[in-house]
Amino acid sequence: MRFIIISIMYVVLFSSCSSEEVKNYPVGTDFIENNVQVKIIDTFSIKSGTFKLDSLVTSNTERILLGAVFDSDLGYTTAQSYLQVVNSDFSIDSEAVYDSIGVILNYDRYYYGDTTQVQTYKVHRLLEAVTPDDDDAFYNTSKVKYDSNELLGELTFTPRPNRETDSLYIPISDALGKEIFDKILDNDINNSDDFTQFFDGFTIIPDTLSNSHILGFKASTATGTENNSSMRLFYTVDDGDSEDNSYYIDFLISESNYQFNAIKTRSSTIGDFEDYETIISSDATNDLIFTQAGTGISSRIEIPSIKNINVISSTATTLSAGLTFKPLKGSYDDNTPLKDSLAVYVVDHKNRILNQLTTISGSSSYAILSENDDEFDSDTYYYIDLGGYVEEILSSTYDLDYALMIQFIDYDKTINSIVIDANEIELTINYLNY
User: Fold this and answer.
1) d(Cα 74, Cα 202) in Å, to the nearest integer?
2) Which site in 5, 26, 274, 290 is 20 to 30 Å from 423, CA atoms measured?
3) So where are the chain's domains?
4) End-to-end Cα spacing for the chain
5) Can you tell me the distance from the alpha carbon of 431 to that of 429, in angstroms, rounded to the nearest whole number?
6) Low-confidence winner among 99-108, 265-274, 348-357, 379-388 (lowest mean pLDDT)
7) Helix-strand-coil percent breakdown of the chain, rounded to 5?
8) Selection from 323, 270, 297, 264 nearest residue 418 by Cα
């Protein structure tokens, strides 16, 4: 029946652009009057706010995130990384001489913030093993104990993240390097288990008072040492014949879930999130709502009046439904650009994620950016196909207390953020009344 109705709709649309009552007059002396109406509703009441997910999995992302940025609404956001590293080959020539040791961080070209600013990274030794939780994962809120009193190494630098072949090198303690080297030569360390028993790993901490940038570095267990991040131990062997007598051992991330990023915010002006059920209304945040990857801060859009369409008419079907929202003007620039698309999830009244939003056909529905180059950004907005969402609410025999959550697609390995103007959220539904 639905497809018959939609077919009628196309006839109506081709015969008239009006949303008034449509009359079809067939050829001949007889005629039938069809009371078919295509109506548009765009006056829905919308409730919006901001909430924070309890935690996000930040292990197994193949990206080290490091740095600190400041936002006038979100406050300070910092990213610290924890790593366990190993090596499978511990063969060193008995005539070898220790040289140096350091941490190599290879850019993966992700950055957020002002990369013209100076940043400092500090390396500290872990005091316990990097052991994932029961679900074999680490979260943005996870912690591993480290020696805060002893500094293994540090580097102050200005980044060049657009050069993927470039890298940072942080020299670390020669005392540690020499001890590892000697233990390998003495056969106290000759496999990965021996090494992790001696050395749990390290954490890299950015200058948290800096308002600079957050960078991404490669962290793969599958690509080998080339263009990968690692801890590298250098040594020399004087063989008398070779001009190049320098060698090294690379210690790579042991397993993909044995590296994770701890991401947190502080001094936020939005308000305090007691738990993931807390919703801070846009009324309390100057008619703005917020989404930030990495921290779990998410925009929430609720449209309780959708179900009222059934009250208007019991003989109606939805043809299309779309929601648009606009990012706050002036909240994005070249350092903090808008993403081409955002993920949309359906959540319940307690902000529990039920599923990713889908269209009527069952495919994933995203918030798609539409923008035109004008000096006022007046035509910059996101569009979401809500056809499937509206149909589910209207066809349910239950009062579905659902809402939409806006989040970044790569929320587990970026720090991107977006500010949404709550006054510029609009739902438009085209429906056929017959």
Assistant:
1) 28
2) 274
3) 37-53+275-433, 63-266
4) 12
5) 6
6) 265-274
7) 15, 40, 45
8) 297
